[in-house]
Each structure stands twice: as C-alpha cells, then as structure tokens.
Design brief:
The chain is of the alpha/beta class. Helices cover about 30% and strands about 20% of the residues. Helix 4 packs across helix 5, helix 6 packs parallel to helix 9 and helix 10 runs parallel beside helix 11. The longest helix has 15 residues. It binds S-adenosyl-L-homocysteine.
Length: about 375
C-alpha cells in the first residue's frame, strides 16, 4: 500500500512524467504511455498500467501513489443531480456535482437507466461542476461556501481527480458521452490560477474533454482575467456580476473594493473573445436588493459594447444567508428588460436544491 507521504502521479504533465521515466532509465515513450493510462484510460491503480512491464509498475508503485481522490459521500436529488463529497489524502474534502440532462441518466439514483457497461448504451449528456479550493476567501454575502473561509488550494491533480471520480462513478466516457465542465464549485478558481490552468490542460489534452465544453466563473479577479485571455488553451469565461453599481456590488461582494466594478468591466471589454464566443455574466437575484427593473436597466447600460449573455440565478437559500428568494414575476420581468435590449438572457434552472447541490449551496453539508 502506498504511504501517505508518497508523491502522486495524477496531476503531472507529460513533461513531468518524462522526467520520472528518465530517472528510471526508461525511454521517453513510457511517459506518453503513462499519460494515456492516467488520463485517457483512467486506471485505478499503478499496477493497472498495462503497457508497462511488471517490474516497472512495481518500481513506480513503490515511489508514487496514484492520487485518485475518494468519494466520501454521495447525495442524489430527485432531479437526477448527484452531489459528491470528494475526500483527499490530508482529510480535507470538497463538493463536486453531476447534473445529467437530456434523456441519458435522468434516473433518480443518478445512474443511466439500462446501462449495459460499454455496449449498446445511448450516450449521456451532462455537466460536472468542479471545485477549485477547499472553501473560499471571497466572502460573497449570499453564498454558503463563504461561511467556511478558505482552507487551502487544490492541486491540479486534486481538481482533475474530481472529474475522474465522477466519470468513474457515473460510468461516463468522454469519447462517447457529451460532458461539459463548469469550474463553478467551491472556491475562486482565479485565486488558484496556476493549478486551475494546469488542470484545464490535463483535462483537455489528457482526459479528452474539449476546452469549448468548459466554462470557468470568477467573482472578478481582474489581473487573472487579463492573464486568462492570453492562454492558448482556455475554457469560456463567466463573470459573477450580481449588482450593477459599485456601491451595491461592494456590499454583496467585498472583492469589489479591491477590484472595482469599473476595473472589472474594463477587463471584460478588452477580453479577447474567439469567433462566436460570448462572455457570460451571472447575476444572482436577491429579493428587493438587486432585482427590480431599474437594476435590470442598469445592467443593460453596463454591458453595452460587450458581446455578452446573461445567466440569471434566483437565490438558492440556505441557513445563515440573510437574503430572500426573488418573486418569480420579478425574475421574468428582469429577464424581459435584458432581452428587449438585445442581450441573450437565461434563467438558470436550480439543480439539486433539495440536496444542497445548487449554486452557492456547496458547503460540505453531509445530508
Ligand atoms: N467563485 C467563483 C466560482 C463560483 S460560481 C464565482 O464567484 O464566480 C458560483 C456561482 O453561484 C456564482 O455566480 C455566484 O454568484 C452564484 N451564487 C453564489 N451563492 C449563490 C446562492 N446562494 N444562490 C444562487 N447563486 C449563488
């Protein structure tokens, strides 16, 4: 059995794997084989790297642990959503959410009905919501994750590991099933930028989930928005706007005091979008706080000149959150103002509210 102090293979790049096989006096193609085994085949043990001779597997297993996280809890919603508690070596854990859509995998227990292992199965479609930190430091006043504070960053391997754990548990195959990733779980991805970006590259190049199927959401870490625009491989970008004025936004999202609304919108305006790409703005509607037509009109003015779409999210309530859910007609009226102004605007369907899996509800709640 690997001891706790062993370094892990999951999370290493092809370059890092090349150094490891080099040290063992093995040829460079072994690094590619190992990369394929870790990310494409997603082996469950080092002994299962079948392209390696037995002796080499043994040597590797003595030096390294694989590093796949453990599923420490699994909570299934009536709407098909499954919230996972994913546990790491040091005892910390985060939450990862599987949200099936379309006809594949809508069964209440989260497993695709009638799945027959590899053959004859209709492709599933769905989205995995991935965490980037244990807890979060950003302290948005309407978000439950904020109550935890930030405990630590996740490594690239720990971020990738969440995806592998869900793929395994739901028997998903990126080559067959249509899988989207949203980096919208616990934490602020742009405050763990390097590990997050490394995970993105491993997921794209190793696991085989196209960058076009990934979206990252930031609360507004302006310098990293600028870095992100320069990345050769990057997900789509979503920005949590949540309020149309500096005054209101800094009350709801203290991060605005450091990176002001003006700085944020300047970065958004200058963000190098790809052909047909739009910037997404998320807006959590809080009853009588930011949800009237005047607020909506102010959002229209702010987004002028930005190729944007808007996702409206009605507040998901939780104990310790002092805001109330907006009235449904307010949500529709808000959407109407934006659509009339020519901004594609969607109301995000709450997923897994009954199991505390919806936006802003991830806080490692056990039941
Ligand atoms: N830290 C990043 C990633 C988290 S994304 C960010 O802030 O963008 C989570 C999304 O859920 C954000 O858009 C956030 O504004 C929203 N959210 C947070 N708390 C919520 C709640 N209680 N109800 C609905 N949405 C919430």
């Amino acid at each position: 059995m690997p001891s706790k102090s062993q370094p892990t293979l999951l999370g290493l790049s092809i370059q890092e794997l090349t150094e490891i096989v080099d040290e063992s006096g093995e040829p460079a193609y072994r690094a590619r084989q190992l990369f394929e085994a870790l990310y494409r085949q997603r082996v469950l043990s080092i002994e299962a790297v079948s392209t390696f001779p037995t002796a080499l597997r043994g040597e590797l297993a003595r030096r390294f642990a694989l590093g796949t996280p453990r599923i420490a809890g699994r909570f299934a919603s009536g709407d098909g959503t499954v919230r996972y508690l994913v546990g790491y070596e040091d005892g910390e854990s985060v939450e990862t959410v599987w949200m099936p859509n379309g006809d594949g995998g809508e069964a209440g227990d989260g497993s695709a009905a009638g799945a027959s292992e590899e053959t004859g199965r209709t492709p599933s479609r769905g989205t995995i919501c991935v965490s980037s930190q244990v807890g979060c430091a950003v302290d948005c006043k309407f978000c439950l994750t904020a109550l935890l504070g930030v405990r630590r960053n996740l490594t690239a391997g720990e971020i990738v590991g969440q995806v592998l754990a869900v793929l395994h548990d739901q028997r998903l195959e990126p080559g067959r099933d249509r899988i989207n990733l949203v980096f919208m779980g616990m934490g602020e991805p742009f405050l763990n930028y390097d590990n997050f970006m490394k995970a993105v590259r491993l997921l794209a190049e190793g696991v085989g989930i196209a960058e076009a199927r990934m979206t990252v959401s930031t609360a507004g870490v302006v310098p990293r928005i600028r870095d992100f625009g320069q990345e050769p491989v990057r997900p789509k970008l979503a920005i949590s706007l949540n309020a149309p004025t500096q005054e209101l936004r800094s009350r709801l999202m203290p991060i605005t005091r450091k990176w002001t609304l003006e700085m944020l919108l300047a970065a958004a305006r200058e963000f190098p979008l790809r052909t047909r790409e739009r910037l997404t703005f998320e807006y959590v509607l809080l009853r009588d706080v930011n949800d009237d037509r005047g607020n909506a009109q102010a959002v229209v003015e702010l987004l002028r000149g930005i190729r944007a779409k808007v996702n409206l999210i009605a507040l998901n309530p939780g104990a310790g959150i002092e805001f109330a859910m907006p009235q449904p007609e307010r949500v529709l009226a808000f959407q109407d103002v934006l659509i009339r102004a020519g901004i594609p605007t969607f109301v995000r369907r709450p997923r897994g509210r009954d199991i505390y899996a919806a936006c802003g509800q991830l806080k490692r709640t056990v039941a």
